[in-house]
Model the fold of this input.
Amino acid sequence: MVNTIKKWVLSSSVLTKVAVFFRRIYLKKSKGITYQKNAFIGFSVQCEGKNGFGKNSAIVSSKIGYGSYIAEGAKLAKVKIGRYCSIGPRVNCIFGKHPSNTFVSTHPSFFAVKTPVGFTYADQQYFEEFAPKHEDQQSITIGNDVWIGANVSLMDGVRIGDGAIVAANALVTKDVEPYTIVGGVPAKPIKKRFEDDEIDFLLEFKWWDKPESWIRENAPKFRNVKDFVGVLKSKGQE
Done:
């Protein structure tokens, strides 16, 4: 029934505009969402709350965790975004790939049953164009407290670990380890953000899962990782 109504609404540009308008009001009041001009949030997007959407940004078929935001011009789809993430301007997702090694041609008519051109020479699927969906049924996973710089492209199937940083203009083709800084085309590790024992502590502690009241109270400790880890260890990880 819900899907039928959604299809009916989407079939009319007028009804779609009306539905988008009222949904924006609902999300703003119930979830504390902030929008800038021409930001688009698809009907299937799940917002955990206190999210921000920059000018001309768009997100569809995705989940976005508490406090995370996407900046101007970012275009995201089929992504699970953790909490307290910073997604920079013009970040985008790239879906689908073509064979580059053994196949003589990269054209889909030689490896795919369904093609954009309406014909094929293949009697079955000989090459997997899209990565398998993750456990949450999303195609790309971004952990918690991740910062992705401007103009970054994320390839289908990648996972970016908690606390990672992706430098501007990078092309992420492989998974990124937690608390690792990567950059380049394709993106490669540059360095770890903290010492191994500090990273282990943060991954176990999961501060982003704490109540906002706890985070607000302890916010001054976030200014130095050694103070943060040292104080909380001495208090038995309160």
User: Anything to note?
Assistant: The helical segments are 2-10, 13-31, 196-205, 212-218, 225-234. The radius of gyration is 21 Å. The mean pLDDT is 91.
